[in-house]
Amino acid sequence: MRAIVWHGKNSLSVDNVPDPVIQEPTDAIIQITSTAICGSDLHLYDGYMMGMEKGDVLGHEPMGIVIETGSAVTNLQKGDRVVVPFNIACGQCFFCQKQLYSCCETTNPDHEKAAKMMGHAPAGLFGYSHLTGGYPGGQAEFLRVPHADFGPIKIESDLPDEKVLFLSDIFPTGWMAAENADIEPGDTVAIWGCGPVAQMCIQSAWMLGAGRVIAIDRVPERLAMAQKFGRAETINFAEVDEVYDVLNEMTQGRGPDRCIDAVGAEAHETGGADAVLDKVKAMTMLGTDRAHALRQALYCCRKGGTVSVPGVYVGMVDKFPMGGTMNKGLTIKTGQTHTQRYTRPLLQKIEAGEIDPSFVITHIRPLEEGPALYKTFRDKEDGCIKVVLKP
Ligand SMILES: NC(=O)c1ccc[n+]([C@@H]2O[C@H](COP(=O)([O-])OP(=O)(O)OC[C@H]3O[C@@H](n4cnc5c(N)ncnc54)[C@H](O)[C@@H]3O)[C@@H](O)[C@H]2O)c1
Ligand SMILES: [Zn+2]
Ligand SMILES: [Zn+2]
Question: Ligand 1 pocket: which of 237, 263, 290, 295 to mutate (most atoms <8 Å of CB)?
C-alpha cells in the first residue's frame, strides 16, 4: 500500500509499504477514505519528538471502511464506516474504567522507555513515536486498528467524511480542553493559538457557557477564522507590545478567568527573553520545548483561574513560573485527549447540527501530495489551516 513515511527531520515521502494484517483477535483492518494532518504531526516533522525511527508510517486522524475483522470483534462488520480515535485504548484496564483512555496501561508495548522519561507511560498512539508504541499510522491506504472492539465509532448516517473526521482527535481535543478549563457561565476564556485545535476550543468554550472568547495568534487567516466562525475577539501577538497588557485592559485588570494553551511545544517567539532562550536551546538540542505560550497563559490568568493545556509538550520545560502559579492559586489541567470518552456525545452534536467541524478545512488533496502539504501547513503557506488527504 501507499503510505506517508518518516525518514528524518523534514524528510517524508509516500512509499510502498506492506499492507497491514490482523495480528490480534481484537484487530480490524480499515481502508482509509480520509485522513488529516495534525499540529502534533509537525512535532515529528520538525524533529522534536524523541523515539521516531526511519520508516515509521505517520498519521493519527483517520476514518474509513472496515474490510476485515478479528475473531473477537463483534461490534463491527465488513463495510462499516468508522472514525478511529488517535489513541489506542483497551476499554477494560484500571485507567480505561476511569475513562482515562489516553492513560490506558495495556496498549503501549514500549512503556518502559516512556516510563523512564515521564515516570509512567501514556497509552499507545497511531503514527507517533516509539515511546507510544510505534504503531503504524493512518496516512496510508489501509490501517490496522488494535482494539477495534472498543475504539472506533461507527458512522451510521450519511454525513460526509469532512463533518465527522475530526472526531478522531481535534474536536474531542478542543472539547476536553474547554471542559478542563472549568468554564463557569459568563467567563472570559482566552485561547493561545488559532490553529485547528484552538478553533475547536473556541467552539467548545461557547457550547460550555463562556461569556467571552479571546483568541491569540499572529497568522491573519487563522485570526480571521476565529472571528468569523468562532465569534471570538482576537489579538495579533505580533502587532501588540504585550499580550498581557491587552488582556488586562479587556478584563478590568483581572486577567481572563480561563486560559487555554492550544499552541504547545513549538511556540513562536514574541521577543521575550524566555522565548529567545527556548529557541536557542531547541536549536542546539539542549531543550525540546519552547513554552512561551504556556508561561504567558500562566502569567495572564486571573487569580484563582484555570489554565488548560491541550498543547503537546515533549520533555522538560524550564523557567516555569511556579511562584506566580502558586501565589495566584491557579489550577492547571492537561493531557492527551481521552478521545473515546467524547466521540459519541460529540457525534450527536454534529448530527443535531449544533456544530459542523469541517469549517477548519482549507485543503483536500490526494495522499501523494501529503509530504509537500506538511511543509505548506507548517509554514502557514497558501492560507493552510487544516489538510485532509484522500488515499
Ligand atoms: N492534547 C491532545 O491530545 C492534542 C491533540 C491534538 C493536537 N494537540 C496539540 O495542540 C497543539 C495545536 O495543534 P494544531 O493542530 O492547532 O497546530 P498548529 O501548529 O496548526 O497551531 C498552532 C498555532 O499556534 C500559533 N502560535 C505560535 N506561537 C504562538 C504564541 N506565542 N502565541 C499565540 N499563538 C501562537 C501558531 O501561529 C499556530 O496558528 C499542538 O501542540 C498539538 O500537538 C494536542
Ligand atoms: Zn492530532
Ligand atoms: Zn485500557
Answer: 263
Q: Using DSSP bridges, classify how beta strands 142-145 and 28-37 pair: parallel, antiparallel or unpaired.
A: antiparallel
Query: Is the confidence at residue 285, as pLDDT, over 80?
Result: no
Q: Whose CA is nearest to atom 3 of ligand 1?
A: 336
What residues flank ligand 1, with Cβ below 6 Å? 38-40, 42-43, 169-170, 173, 192-198, 216-219, 222, 237, 262-264, 267-268, 270, 292-293, 310-312, 336-337
What's the rounded Cα separation, in Å, for the pair 219 and 351?
A: 31
Amino acid occupying residue 169: D
Residue 56 half-sphere exposure, CB side, CA atoms within 13 Å?
29
Q: Measured between alpha carbons, how far is 218 from 296 in angstroms, rounded to an integer?
A: 15
- Confidence tier at 278 by pLDDT (50, 70, 90): confident
**Cα distance between the two ends of the chain:** 10
Alpha-carbon gap, residue 48 to 281, rounded angstroms: 12
Per-residue pLDDT band for 92 (boundaries 50, 70, 90) equals very high
* H runs (alpha helix) in 111-155: 111-118
